[in-house]
């Protein structure tokens, strides 16, 4: 059972992707929705808004506890921002869970490539993954225990780190849930299955 944080943002696309691979899911909006989940997806959207809603709704501390206890988690875009230890270009009062020892920069790609698509080599996935970036963050610093899974191959943002994993935390700057490609979600399903 995978919970999808459903305070704001692109929840439906994750639901559809999990449906396609036959994984049970549930929206997480209140504390009681955390009961019995085996993994959690933090969707794309607006990280500062999600952060505010997490605080207001009382989910921030229970989630922080579950994540630091090793609950498998996958964050896309704004979700990646929420997982990072350090966030650049955000609001001073924005919260993040800090389970990924990385520094990310919000809206990092700049005006010209603000939103774009490209094909990426993704560690652990055989053929390239088509990646859709929507006002995405990138990773600027990677801690010693963090594995880089994908970088932008060419263009103005060549070399930017856009997919990482550390222990049970997986994050992508882009949105596999928007392309009909289920392979990153399958990778996450396997991470979850390995812990239950
Ligand atoms: N720019 C958004 C933020 O900072 C992220 C965009 C997205 O999730 N597609 O939260």
TrEMBL record:
L-glutamine binds at residues 45-47, 106, 134-135. It holds the Pfam family SNO. Signal peptide: none annotated. GO terms for biological process: L-glutamine catabolic process; pyridoxal phosphate biosynthetic process; pyridoxine metabolic process. Its EC number is 4.3.3.6, 3.5.1.2. Keywords: Glutamine amidotransferase, Hydrolase, Lyase, Pyridoxal phosphate. InterPro entries: Class_I_gatase-like (IPR029062), PdxT/SNO (IPR002161), PdxT/SNO_CS (IPR021196). It catalyses: L-glutamine + H2O = L-glutamate + NH4(+); aldehydo-D-ribose 5-phosphate + D-glyceraldehyde 3-phosphate + L-glutamine = pyridoxal 5'-phosphate + L-glutamate + phosphate + 3 H2O + H(+). Pathway: Cofactor biosynthesis; pyridoxal 5'-phosphate biosynthesis. The active site is at residues 77, 175, 177. GO terms for cellular component: cytosol; glutaminase complex. GO terms for molecular function: glutaminase activity; pyridoxal 5'-phosphate synthase (glutamine hydrolysing) activity. In the presence of PdxS, forms a dodecamer of heterodimers. Only shows activity in the heterodimer. NCBIfam families: PLP_synth_Pdx2. Catalyzes the hydrolysis of glutamine to glutamate and ammonia as part of the biosynthesis of pyridoxal 5'-phosphate. The resulting ammonia molecule is channeled to the active site of PdxS. Belongs to the glutaminase PdxT/SNO family. This is Pyridoxal 5'-phosphate synthase subunit PdxT. It comes from Corynebacterium meridianum. The gene is pdxT.
